[in-house]
Structure formats: C-alpha cells, structure tokens
Automatic annotation (TrEMBL):
Bilayer topology: Multi-pass membrane protein
Name used for this protein in its record: Zinc transporter ZIP13
Family the UniProt entry places it in: Belongs to the ZIP transporter (TC 2.A.5) family.
Pfam families listed in its UniProt record: Zip (PF02535)
Any one GO CC term of the record: membrane
Amino acid sequence: LQISGYLNLLANTIDNFTHGLAVAASFLVSRKVGFLTTMAILLHEIPHEVGDFAILLRAGFDRWSAAKMQIYTALGGILGACFAICAQSPKGAGETVAWILPFTSGGFLYIALLNVVPDLLEEKNPWNSLQQILLLCTGITVMVLLSHT
C-alpha cells in the first residue's frame, strides 16, 4: 500500500473531526443553524468521500478495505462532536461556540481557497477566472442570506 493512502486517511479523519465540531457547535446555537450546517457538510462530504475512496483504491486498498477505512475515518466526526459537547462551559454554550465555529469556519475557508486560488492563478482564460470568482461570491451571498432568514 502506498503512503498516499494512509496520508489521505489521516487528513480525512482530521477533516471529519472538524466537521463533527462544527455540527455539534451549530446545534448548540440552534436547531436551524445545526440543520443548515449538517446539510452543508453532507453536500460537501458526498463527493469528497467518493474521491477519497478512489484515492484509496489507487493507493492499493481493495474495495472492502477502502470502505472499512472510510467508515473508521467517519468516527473522527463523532469524536469531534463529543469534544464540542464536552467542551461546553458551565456558563453556557455561548463560550464554546465562540471559539469552535470560527475555528472550523476558518479551516473550511482555508481548504476551499487553497484549492481555488492556485487554479485561478494558473487559468489562462480570464472568462473562466471571472466565472469562478462569481461563483465564489454567489456561495458567500447564499451563506449570508441563509444566516439572516
């Protein structure tokens, strides 16, 4: 098995841990925020997990081993959620959420921009770059609108 498969598993576990943090902290804010965060993470995770499965297959894992390892990495999400719940302050959820949500949001933005910005810089066609920037701004606008409804 190639080292890239194991590195992918480690990164996926950390990613799932932060997702668990975000979901639990969001539910500490309100049910609405919790459900919105859960839906956003699910929409992100479906293609992400399919891609990770393909990476594991390419790294030499058989289908059953790759599927088992993907399930094991999902336990990172449960650990993250448990950590967020256990980290609650006796003064209330507000102090917990005050650091967890910005931490996880910053991580998600960092990862997203880490993937987008290099592509924008290498893009030769300005129309494609403009489309990507417009779609990024549209995503931000949707998040702002959802947070105010």
